[in-house]
Amino acid sequence: MSYAKKFTPEQAATIAPIIKEIEALDQGDHFSLQDTPEALDYLRFLIYSWLYQTGIKSAFILKRLSLKELRVVRKQSPSPLIINQEETEGITFCLEHLLEIDEESTVEHKIRDAVSGRILSPEFATEALFEWRRLQGIGGID
Question: What is the pTM of this model?
Answer without folding.
Answer: 0.53
